[in-house]
Specification:
The complex is a heterodimer of chains A (about 725) and B (about 375). Chain A is of the alpha/beta class and about 725 residues long. Chain A is built from 25 helices and 27 strands. In chain A, a hairpin with a 2-residue loop joins strand 16 and strand 17. A 7-stranded mixed beta sheet of chain B has the order 2-3-1-4-5-7-8, covered by helices on one side. The chains are: A alpha/beta (about 725), B alpha/beta (about 375).
């Protein structure tokens, strides 16, 4: 046995340690809760020079999977980590990886799939991977996350199939416990061995083609090869487990159980719930009950043979599924256990319970309850466990607010008029706009001092027409719509943040159609899509598509410069050099390594009628531009408005003085205020003319996330930043001439 | 430094036939409860010669919202296989007295539970509770030592769970904070030590009997608000929510950090800048006259929704809004509930206006170092 040291760590931390020890070449990833900490931990190690892993933060999971695929084709050792909708977004890439037979490992911290959106754990994401041709290992404990990461890569390279290491989101990914790792990285590397490349892609002397265009009769043969590889994996796994047992002292099998040798009633659970059941089953057995519990460490290849022999005395099995294959009478685990038992000619009776969805806690008492269910012949074969019927509350259904109608918002404070000289806008008076009822109610859960509600408020005060909202995933959506509450007093729809603009296009089309048919009253309605927290990274394609189609809606971006809703991972809008949880500062890294994205310019390039930048430090300008944008979005085509939005929590500055920080961002020309109206660029405010221009470091020094750049050692970073900002501003001014 | 197990004294608790010793931390995001949970967990496996695990209640990253932490200890030989929250804690650690307003904070406590509360009070009026209660003026200590409230609570916890030598606490502070916040280590060590030394048992004001026993596990598990209970029979399909604007029933005063904006109406020129800077729609304007002119007039603030960010104080050009200490301003002049409401929500009845003050050092320290809050 090799020497090991104790760690007190979470599943994500142990995955990161394993990845570091293995010495991977590249991690392509996109942050998504609850798997994000893996990349975060590795980024800390990178910043401190503990690993030379190449880390590529993609602009979405689909791209992350592409980066991983390319890197593995090129012969790198590659790892990824994801969860929930991230898995689904990248789904089409996984069969490509498996079908062309390139090994890699992906950690899946299992989380429930939207919608409605939830960040907590169940297995609904993982089960989508069953048919992708990836091997799937499932870890019940933090220790297993580490161990399986090491076994996974060896398996992957041996059979040339990609491998998933799955574990429960939060229950395993975030809970800290005692565990062990090998003292030396070399021990891990020796176990895995050198990577073999049967067809080196970058060998220019022997060029190969990867990814042929293939039809019948070849595809079926290609798939059969994949099937054979799965069979090979099935045969190889026992040896890998036992080899690993020899060096670690921890022995695993494809199936694990307690009391299964003589148990008549067996509870089948996956993940941390199985772990929870162990103590209870032991207790019950001491009480003389022949109970047992079992779990699988391998879902693909599904261990039919081992499973059947593992339960020799079982008469009744209850499979508890943490997801449902809706309409199939059970989750995928129960379907597969049923199939396996039937294949063995076994007459065991199997019941299914769907439990713990959306991270609903699993208590020890639940183990006994479930086994009672199994024994009770009156209970049905399939049911949901832990659901509540709810109570009817008439008081709560009485409205708290009157609807915000056209009559109430048309206060005539901000007026837009098309004249011969173009669009004229007047008003924007801060006093008079207070007369307008709020489309968003107070009581939302944003952090003290958050810029998002401030920006939304300024935007909406400038828009007097009825508003229909679509929010992409992000802080704004999370803090306003935590069920069973909502802050919205006007129609609101959420969709995931790669698809907001497209979704709203659909809403708008049906609105116009219904108006035309007379099914709803005529009159202007403004469709507003709200996004931030990097939503126009992953959602950029959808936004550009909408702009190119010219759908009549307003895209509003609150740019807080990071994925703030998930703990501040870098977005493409994060300033150069800024510290984030995926761009740490250390001896080997100075923060984010590339410039902030110029989204308004990208949008302007689509030729939409109106693009504007706004800041709360210039509130009247903000509201007037909102009114203009509304005009164009109602009458002409897509309008795009971007605000720079303060995030006291992650910018790490004081909530009270955020307006000054925003003002500084404007004055240093990091965030110049301008508009592009029907192709004509106009600077709204020129700090050079008012003598208020400041160097960018003055702004950066105001925030904890960029304060470190004041140090001499980062002078070069600041210089490059200043240069880029000056260049962008000079170009802007030229366009505005 | 390896601290000898025998010195710590804590193991005794587990030798009394207890399978687990369980601690639940009750706090507000931003006070460092999550970090305290980690420190207590690590302390167990590293220095107390026991096994341990910990986790926090999970949610999106935010300051000002309630946070729970869970720490379990058991004998070294045993694996911790529980992954569920702690329902009946042996020790409940409450980061601020005001949190006790919310039932779910003390649910599951019984006469054997010990409670540590950060309070400057000398007595506790806690009619539901019969166990032992300890108080520590953690905010004052944190301020005086330039440490954070969580390390003060760490010291207090060590004392109450029977750790005989606070050196293990120092050690875990060094391990956890030393590298990340070297500059504030000395203060944190001092804060921890004073927590250990100054924690004291509080006399309970008994108000005829207890209904603590009535709180069951079921209450805790199914702890969703009674007033809004939607289930599969009653909830609109698809998660649709027709209760427009009902976040308004939330009382957000616990998000405050001890300070509130005070409104001096005589100075106000109704410019609307406060309204434009407020993230929480606190300012209530109504039609009226100002200097003979028809204008929207600032009526006052809706303190139910004020999170105390003080943005309004910063932007007010005439000092009509000033920073006040919440505790000194219990009767808030110009308190004006939301004027657009059709009916007053029930929730408001129990909504108090007491916030809490965290240490000044919290506001000024370089919190981004590691981002632990």
């Amino acid at each position: 046995m090799e020497k090991q040291v104790m760690e007190y760590a979470s599943g994500n931390e142990m995955a990161a340690i394993a990845i570091k020890q293995i010495g991977y070449d590249l991690m392509g990833y996109y942050p998504i809760t609850p798997s994000t900490q893996i990349a975060e931990n590795l980024d800390i190690m990178r910043a401190n020079g503990e690993t030379d892993l190449v880390m590529v933060a993609a602009e979405g999971e689909h791209s992350a999977a592409g980066i991983c695929y390319g890197a593995s084709v090129a012969g790198g050792r590659v790892v990824n980590a994801s969860s929930a909708n991230g898995i689904l977004y990248a789904l089409e890439q996984f069969p490509v990886q498996a079908g062309t037979r390139y090994p890699m490992v992906m950690n899946v911290a299992c989380r429930t799939v939207s919608g409605p959106l939830s960040i907590k754990g169940d297995h609904s994401d993982l089960m989508y991977l069953l048919n992708t041709g990836w091997c799937i290992l499932f870890a019940n404990t933090v220790q297993q996350v580490y161990d399986f990461n090491i076994i996974a890569l060896k398996l992957s390279e041996a059979v040339r199939l990609p491998v998933v290491v799955a574990y429960d989101g939060f229950f395993t990914s975030h809970q800290k416990s005692r565990c062990y790792r090998f003292e030396e990285d070399k021990m891990v590397q020796d176990f895995i061995g050198k990577k073999q490349e049967p067809y080196p892609f970058l060998d220019l002397e022997h060029p190969i083609t990867v990814g042929s265009y293939m039809n019948e009769p070849d595809i079926i043969n290609n798939r059969y090869q994949l099937h054979l590889a799965m069979e090979e994996a099935d045969k190889l796994l026992p040896k890998l487990f036992s080899d690993y047992g020899e060096i670690s002292g921890r022995n695993y099998g494809k199936v694990e159980g307690i009391g299964c040798q003589d148990a008549e009633n067996v509870l089948f659970l996956l993940g941390s719930s199985y772990d929870t059941s162990i103590d209870v089953i032991e207790e019950m057995r001491k009480e003389g009950k022949k109970a047992g519990a079992a779990t699988l460490h391998v879902l693909r290849p599904f261990p039919v043979k081992e499973l059947v022999t593992f339960l020799p005395k079982a008469k009744n099995i209850l499979v508890a599924d943490r997801q449902d294959s809706y309409g199939a009478g059970g989750g995928n685990l129960s379907l597969e256990v049923r199939a396996a038992m039937q294949k063995a000619g076994n007459s065991v009776k199997i019941k299914s319970l769907v439990y713990g969805l959306g991270g609903k806690d699993f208590f020890q008492e639940d183990v006994r309850d479930m086994l009672e269910w199994l024994e009770d012949d009156c209970k049905p074969d399939f049911a949901y466990y832990g659901i509540t019927p709810g109570k009817v509350s008439e008081t709560e259904d009485k409205p708290l607010f009157a609807p915000v109608t056209r009559e109430k918002t048309m206060i005539g404070s901000t007026k837009v008029e098309m004249t011969e000289k173009g669009l004229k806008v007047s008003g924007g008076n801060l006093n008079s706009v207070t007369a307008m009822p709020g489309r968003i109610a107070p009581g939302h859960g944003a952090c003290p001092g958050c810029g998002i509600p401030v920006n939304l408020n300024l935007l909406l005060r400038g828009i007097e027409d009825p508003v229909v909202f679509l929010f992409q995933t992000g802080c704004a959506m999370i803090v306003t719509t935590a069920y069973p509450k909502t802050s919205f007093r006007v129609p609101y729809l959420h969709n995931l943040f790669q698809n907001g603009a497209a979704t709203l296009s659909g809403v708008a089309e049906i609105c116009y159609r219904k108006q035309e048919k007379g099914e709803i009253p005529k009159g202007d309605i403004l469709f507003v899509m709200v996004s931030g927290d990097g939503g126009l990274d992953i959602g950029m394609g959808s936004a550009l598509g909408t702009a190119l189609r010219g759908h009549r809606l307003l895209i509003f971006e609150y740019d807080n410069g990071g994925y703030m809703n998930t703990g501040y991972q870098l977005s493409y809008s994060t300033p150069l050099g800024a510290r984030s949880s995926t761009s740490h500062v250390g001896s080997k890294q100075y923060g984010k390594t590339f410039f902030h994205k110029d989204m308004p310019r990208i949008m302007a390039a689509t030729g939409i009628p109106y693009v504007a930048t706004v800041a709360e430090s210039n509130p009247t300008d903000f509201m007037k531009k909102a009114a203009k944008a509304a005009y164009y979005a109602k009458n002409v085509g897509t309008a795009y408005v971007k605000a720079i939005s303060a995030c006291p929590l992650n910018w790490n500055d004081k909530p009270a003085t955020e307006r000054k920080v925003i003002e500084a961002a404007v004055n240093c020309c990091y965030f110049p205020l301008y508009e592009v109206e029907q192709g004509v660029t106009r600077l709204s405010y020129d700090p050079e003319k008012t003598g208020k221009k400041i160097p960018v470091i003055d702004w950066l020094s105001m925030m904890g996330r960029t304060k470190h750049l004041q140090k001499e050692e980062y002078a070069e970073v600041v210089f490059r930043m200043q240069q880029e900002i000056d260049l962008r501003f000079a170009e802007l001014k030229k366009r505005a001439e | 430094m390896q601290v000898g197990e025998k010195k710590t004294g804590f193991k005794k608790i587990l030798e009394e036939g207890k399978e687990y010793y369980e601690i639940r931390l009750e706090s507000i995001g931003g006070l460092g409860a999550n970090l305290l949970g980690k420190m207590l967990g690590e302390l167990g496996v590293k220095y107390l010669d026991v096994n341990s695990s910990n986790f926090s209640s999970y949610g999106s990253e935010k300051t000002g919202t309630p946070v729970k932490g869970f720490v379990r200890y058991c004998k070294k030989e045993k694996e911790i296989r529980l992954h569920s929250p702690i329902v009946e804690p042996d020790l409940l650690v409450v980061f601020h007295q005001a949190l006790l307003k919310d039932e779910v904070v003390w649910k599951g406590c019984n006469e054997k539970t010990k409670i540590i509360i950060a309070t400057d009070g000398e007595r506790m009026e806690f009619p539901f509770f019969r166990g032992e209660i300890y108080g520590i003026d953690a905010q004052r200590i944190a301020m005086e030592t330039h440490s954070r409230i969580n390390v003060v609570m760490l010291g207090a916890v060590l004392k109450v769970i029977g750790v005989e030598n606070p050196e293990v606490g120092e050690q875990i502070c060094r391990d956890t904070l030393g590298k990340k916040y070297p500059a504030s280590l000395q203060g944190n060590l001092e804060g921890m030590k004073r927590g250990y030394e100054e924690i004291r048992k509080l006399p309970l004001t008994d108000r005829n009997g207890s209904n603590m026993e009535e709180s069951t596990k079921e209450d805790y598990k199914g702890r969703e608000s009674d007033q809004l209970q939607w289930g599969y029979l009653t909830a609109p399909m698809g998660g649709i929510n027709p209760r427009l604007g009902n976040t308004v029933i939330s009382d957000l005063s616990p998000s405050r950090q001890g300070y509130i904006p005070l409104f001096i109406k005589e100075r106000c020129i109704n410019c609307g800048l406060c309204f434009s800077a407020c993230p929480d729609m606190v300012f209530q304007f109504a039609k009226g006259k100002f200097k003979g002119k028809d204008m929207m007039i600032n009526q006052g603030l809706d303190y139910y929704h004020c999170k105390g960010c003080l943005r309004c104080v910063d932007v007010c050009p005439v000092n009509a809004l000033v920073r006040g200490v919440e505790a000194e301003n219990e009767r808030k002049e110009h308190f004006m509930p939301n004027q657009e409401l059709l009916r007053l929500p029930k929730y408001y009845e129990k909504a108090g206006a007491d916030g809490y003050i965290t240490s000044e050092s919290y506001l000024t320290e370089e919190r981004m170092e590691g981002g632990e809050v």
